[in-house]
């Protein structure tokens, strides 16, 4: 029993102990669970806090990348492209090769916006108009953004097309204006008056049309009138090209030398690539410049020299209504404009071979200007006949020769700047055709004036207004015939024309030849020779007409006068003096002398000599026609022949001397001294009785003129 009791006690103790242990474990488990539950929340919050802290650290550390897409957009809107490029370069170096997905995602957003920026910058680069500064800036931005292709070359191409577009638009706007369509307001056309330049008669004013030496200089007041459309067009066109081409050329130079990119070590590769591209595209750029130059030249030719373009070119570059060709004055102004443009382009150091086409244009314009000026000069000279006032000075001249000379001098002076060669220009007379054309036009001008003289001198009396006629007060006027009569006779006009011809031959034509030579004209000897020959032919025709007017009546009166009253050489009385017919003839000759002397004393010897020739020739003929003379008849004939011969002795020529000699040889010789003495007495009586009338034949002999 004790043993059993002991065993039972032991078993009970174990059971109690086991139960307590179980309870303790349960308690402990519950406590542990409760603790786990309690601290799990704390630990969870701690982990969440750590995670949040770590996330914030990452965001803080990489906020540059995460904020970059938005910052790029903002900076693009503000135009801070340098900031965008710097941020992009930084992001590319940090995250360009990342494998972290979130970084890759945000970096992709950055690249998307950068690509949009490249497109934006390229569009801005190709926009026109644009400044060279902006173009260089956009090219550098695109280069820094590693834009594909060659933006610089694209810009050059766009600028080239823009210049061509502006040039053709300029032409179209002016052509439309000329045809009546409205032209947008342009400062070039803002002119205050519509006064056109005066013709060559006022060529002294042409200097006021010249502009300043600088292409950008202000206008002279004389320019403030409405210029022809073609002139303002050339001004606008050349100004456009001169303003656009320098930046275009400088852009190319920057492209060639690589200065479009910063000269730093990291950009040296870009510079080398740019230089390499430029070398490959030199010919392409040369073609661009040539196209601009060709367009400039052909547009100007279309406006001013349409005949120098082919039919196809006229459709593209012409279209102007050529109602009348520009005057020499306006062409001179255009030449000055084109020359200034050429100087401006040469200053850019554009190779001369690219600008040669402009020099060719200038040469053609200069030639055309000379041709047109000479043509207009001929027209002006043709109108000089209307200005003849028939006022004779003390040398027997009207103002016509002086007006003619001044007209040509003014014309040549207006061409001085055209004839002078600027640096790089060829002589306007280098082409044989130009020399020939100018020579013919010059001869034509001289001939026009000669025709003008002939027209004036041979017009019917009623066709000439001489109500304003007067003679210089210092001019000798023995008979006052011109003062007393308000109209000129045909003979007087012939005399005045002859006097003008004489002066033209001895002075005016020689002076004009000197002016032609001074201005570099070719073939001056030919011009002078042909003109002189034509002038001499006119002079001779007019002279013959005057002699016919004056000598024929005198000559015609001799035969009736000789045989008046049934006079017979074979049956006549002893001479008592010179008969009336000869005295009348002498009075008529004196009247001719007076008329000529009143107009021009220099013409007297020439006219009188020829009248004496005609009279002596007729007298000789009449004497040779007589079958026989009686003694008294021979003495009478010799008296009258000698009286006439001695009276006009100072105007005798070899021809008239020969006629008098033949007349005397037709007479029987006087054998007796009585007859010779009688002849001498009668001659002296004649000279004494007509002393007053014969005074004009006693003046000192002046130099004879050729007939």
UniProtKB/TrEMBL annotation:
<comment type="function">
    <text>Component of the exocyst complex involved in the docking of exocytic vesicles with fusion sites on the plasma membrane.</text>
</comment>
<comment type="similarity">
    <text>Belongs to the SEC5 family.</text>
</comment>
<dbReference type="GO" id="GO:0006887">
    <property type="term" value="P:exocytosis"/>
</dbReference>
<dbReference type="InterPro" id="IPR039481">
    <property type="entry name" value="EXOC2/Sec5_N_dom"/>
</dbReference>
<dbReference type="Pfam" id="PF15469">
    <property type="entry name" value="Sec5"/>
</dbReference>
<dbReference type="GO" id="GO:0006893">
    <property type="term" value="P:Golgi to plasma membrane transport"/>
</dbReference>
<dbReference type="GO" id="GO:0015031">
    <property type="term" value="P:protein transport"/>
</dbReference>
<comment type="subunit">
    <text>Component of the exocyst complex.</text>
</comment>
<keyword id="KW-0268">Exocytosis</keyword>
<dbReference type="InterPro" id="IPR029175">
    <property type="entry name" value="EXOC2/Sec5"/>
</dbReference>
<feature type="domain" description="Exocyst complex component EXOC2/Sec5 N-terminal">
    <location>
        <begin position="3"/>
        <end position="697"/>
    </location>
</feature>
<protein>
    <recommendedName>
        <fullName>Exocyst complex component 2</fullName>
    </recommendedName>
</protein>
<keyword id="KW-0653">Protein transport</keyword>
<keyword id="KW-0813">Transport</keyword>
<dbReference type="GO" id="GO:0000145">
    <property type="term" value="C:exocyst"/>
</dbReference>
